[in-house]
Amino acid sequence: MCDTCGCGDTELVPVEVHDRILADNDHRALHNREHFDRSGVFAINLMGSPGSGKTALLEATARAFGDRYQLAAVSGDLATDNDATRLRAAGIPSGTITTGSACHLDARMIHNALHDLPMKDVDFFFIENVGNLVCPAIYDLGQHLNVVALSVTEGDDKPLKYPVMFRRADLVVLTKTDLLPVLPEVSVLGISEALAKVMPRPRLLPLSSRSGEGLEAWLSELTRQRPKSVAAADLQGANPG
């Protein structure tokens, strides 16, 4: 497995073809980011393995924010609409990108999905990526923030086993911390030490979507980061050319 492509074998995918694919994706990602910036939307790429608690985190985020902010989301899944259905039930306008066999979302998929979502007055746009700890890290989607959801049930060695994902993360949300009492072999310290070995600027935020513990710190992080995109929107409005 090469360090620049999570799903490609360099013997099967010629390097020059792969480079062209990523270059095209980056161009589309730039277009997406410009769209988000013009609209004052803060976009978060939420990644993590299947069952890491990504959907539960977004449900809890919607409940905690209430009417303070408008959220929207898109969920990547190989075959179902289950996650987006849960998000819509939580009050988040959401769409599904069904990838079939693809283990990640790319910028083109996000661009196409935006046409079907009500994005007017949206403050936070969450991209719930396909459950995978490898491929999604490689593709820029136009997001402002890369977040990895890591469940305590996955153990404390995942950052070492999947370094590319965590190396590209801006923030790691340690989910399901309410289960720590029944997982004596897992520790927050052990996970923090593993992250420190692979993450350029290690940032770990433990929380439980079920109990709500640590959720306020997550909301504070989002609201602290969002003014960057709002400032970009204001700048573009002042300089439309």
Topology:
Layout: H1 15-39, E1 42-48, H2 54-65, E2 71-77, H3 82-89, E3 94-98, H4 107-114, E4 124-128, E5 145-151, H5 158-161, H6 163-167, E6 171-175, H7 188-198, E7 204-206, H8 215-225, H9 227-238
Parallel strand pairs: 1-4, 1-5, 2-3, 2-4, 5-6, 6-7
What features would you highlight for this structure?
241 residues, 9 helices, 7-stranded parallel beta sheet, globular
What would your notes on this structure say?
It is a single chain. This protein is of the alpha/beta class and 241 residues long. It is built from nine helices and seven strands; from the N terminus they run αβαβαβαββααβαβαα. A seven-stranded parallel sheet has the order 3-2-4-1-5-6-7, sandwiched between helices. Helix 3 (82-89) links the parallel strand 2 and strand 3 (94-98). The relative contact order is 0.17.
Task: Sum this structure up briefly.
By secondary structure, the protein is α/β, with parallel strands linked by helices. 40% of the residues lie in helices and 16% in strands. The protein contains 9 helices and 7 strands.
Structural shape: globular
Mean pLDDT figure: 90
Number of helices: 9
- Based on helices, strands and strand pairing, what is the structural class? alpha/beta
| Largest sheet descriptor | 7 strands, parallel
Q: How are the strands of the largest sheet arranged?
A: 3-2-4-1-5-6-7
Strand count = 7
Beta-sheet strand percentage?
Answer: 15-25%
Poorly predicted runs are 1-6
- The string of secondary-structure elements, in order, is HEHEHEHEEHHEHEHH
